[in-house]
Amino acid sequence: MSGFRVSRAGPLALLQDSGRFGVRHLGVTQGGPADLHAWAWANSLTGNAWGTGVLEITFGGLELVAEGDLTIALTGADLGIKHNRQPAPRWRTLAVAAGDTLTFGTPANGLRAYLAVSGGFRGDTVLGSSACVVREQLGGFDGQGNSLREGDTLTVNRAGTPPAQRAAPESERHDYRQMAILDLLPGAQIAAFTGRSLFDAFNAEWRVDQRADRMGVRLTGPALQCSIGSLISEGISLGAVQVPPDGQPIALLNDRQTIGGYPRLGNLTPMAASRLAQCMPGQAVRFRAAGIDSTLRQHRRFLQEHAAASAC
Prior knowledge:
alpha+beta, seven-stranded mixed barrel, 4 helices
């Protein structure tokens, strides 16, 4: 079924389903949405099942032309999105007609926007997922891990009954300009950090470095001291906060390597990793210690809410 034609390609627009799982023993990373929260809301608003492919647009600069009548939702960052040259509503369903244009400008609030269409975007499945990982040349609309290019055609799965008009609650529409408080589960090596470093880790402001992408985000602040210089490499999870010898933490995201040997301060929760993925370089963030029980309850509730919404 016709979806959109790319009339102008931005720097990084990728197809992302929920991610590629069960293959890290092969050295293949996860992929999937950098901001799970905004991605899930985009699918829920359009009535799609959990795991349906959504377009993740980083930095903007993209222009799409609709090739059919579609129901869409735009969530995540405010990239100055316009529908037929008028400001497009975000965090709610929107009807677009054949010939309509969607234009993504530059970041005004956050870094990554998500475009879902009722029925879901269609992409080539590789190793059980269409999640696009450019470095590994896997997934995406062509199965080769390419970001969108001018002239590409995005096809969609045929939707059933169009979903009723929906909007996300105001409480779910994050203001990404506010300081991000990142919940962190203390890790196995946390006792190897000095007392002063632990105090600084949870009380200092950290700044997002220019060296930030879908693989990870470097943070700058007080140098953290650890008695462990390096470890035998072990599996790395989404949100792992490694501390290399320079003492500046690196929070690893969806396109991270599968193993690593730096000591870890801990692990960001999935929602904290999502929030960090929306932070611009230079933005301030703080860590907040979190417990496993409350974190599990919150994440299970989030999954249940969105699975239920997609089944409606």
